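Known limitations

Files may contain more than one protein. Parsers should not assume a single record per file. Below, a two-record file is shown to illustrate correct handling: read the sequence, read the token line, then continue until end of file.
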Amino acid sequence: MDEDIIVCEILSRLPVKSLMRFKSVCKHWCYLIKRDPYFIDLHFSRSKSHQCLFIVELQQSIGGVGGDIICRGRRAQFVAAELSPGERGRGTVTSTIHTMSKTDLFSYSTIVGIVNGLICFVDRNKHDVCIYNISTRDQITPWIKSTLSMEEKLIGVVSGSCVYKFGFDPVSKDYKVIGKWKILDEFEIWGVLTVGENTWRKIDEAPPCYIGPSAPSVYVNGFIYWFPSRYTGGDGFIVAFEVGCEKFRALQVPTFILRQRSDYDGDKVNVCLLEVNGSVAILRRMTVCDIKLWIYGHIDKENSKATAINSGDKNWTEKKITLPAVCWDRNRFLCCDPISGTDQLIFEIHQKNSDALPDSVYLYSYELKSKNFKPIKISGIPSSVPIDDTKT
């Protein structure tokens, strides 16, 4: 309807706080704001110009594994803060709280992805997933359990090596969860859940190498990437899953990346995967003072049937980042999160207490182009809200 297009054009320019009020105008507006795919996509695309920091406060949080957030809590609190760079040449980035919301009470163990304002919760004990909209504070799907193991008549207990990840197909506008279940440590089943259909279906595709639950992973521009825990061969690969066509492939990692010895973790290849300006990137700490970032420049979507891509050294750009002095203490745990679609990174430095548990956190903004670190000062957050983790 032409009237709907006009309404969407107007509402899509409003901040989330205003949208929450306009949901009560009428049922149709409430549907547009909460459920209409065209409006949701339009509002998100226009919101990209406003850099936003999501602070995820998790009750009884126990840290992160492979890019996911692990917790034992039953409720998550989300705090949204808009980043303002301030005056040029000044050394601080300000961040002002404009939205605070809590999920309803439900049991979950892991957050496996935040994509376009939607968040995927997983209950690993029941093997259920549900999708929650941070902006509208609505649960988009019910808790959905996979019955694929029963359909395959595989008798046994699902092992603890299950894998879940959340992604988006920018062509069809579909959100999908991909999952892997291991039965009796022998059989593996891969399945996909499309949000809206709300049923799991088996896919015959399988990755070219083993992917464990602790493998670093990230969603970037229509692809879900994993850095595998181990390889079937001697070469290193990043596994890429294209959300649209639901195909796996292996993206070769050049030896000049894998063979660099780290003075921080020795010969171990401890890395994390990030999105930098729409591309997948590998981040590795080399010393207490420095980290290196390798950004991949291209992936061929037309070659969707390929099982492997020889990326070559020339497709990877290496960046060296000298960390601020506050990071140099080995008792401080370092995390890094990107601001999607930009070359800006958010660094979290967690100070541990005498029990080796997170006690406080420092936030820094880093721009690859200017190579400048700036501390982030957050205002407007109540002292009663502890900050356990941050996503952008």
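...continuing to the second record:
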Amino acid sequence: MENEPPSYDETTQNATQNEASGDEKIKVWKFDLSLTFIKSIGGIFNVVLIFFSLLCCIILGAAKRVDCYAAYTSAYGFYNFAFGSCILTYILRYIIYIFNLNTRLLWVFPWLIWNPAVSLFFAVTFFISSIAVVANECGKYYGGYKAAAAFGFITFFIMGAELAYNIYLLRRDHPPTENTVLLFVGVERKPPGNAPVYDQDNTTSDSPEESKY
């Protein structure tokens, strides 16, 4: 029958493959979603940053005054750009990771490098845009703009925490290299010539699934 549920052997085989890959999955309709990513530190950071970025955009929109927007359009526009682009970027990344598309796109995006680079970019833009909102006259006298700046700084600190976590994963899991930038952030230097290779048991992660997230 076409609607017959999968046999025990098929179900067991799928479960065995998931365990072997270190990735716990949950089936929703016809899709296998990565439960490992949803519960991971990276997945939690992703959701929290989407929520706070959306909250920042809502607060700034609620505080809107025509005279302030006319006088400081560039400052508020940059604020909306910073947090709005973060929402779109992190929603896209969440979709990529939850469907395990990151493993298929490794040749396009080296995620260990890409993730801290994205975190650094948004941390800088959050900091600058929050200062821009609170530094002008409207930011000094109107509570709505003060709240937008305050939540902007909160989101900046959360992004900074994610950046630190992504750098930790980069330093822990990236193979030895001679790249100057990677060496600067603490990645192990590639041994010269025919130097002996160290015991892999001392360099591999206790939680390999974290490297993906």
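Parsers that stop after the first record will miss the second one. For reference, the second record is described as follows. The chain is about 65% helix and 5% strand.
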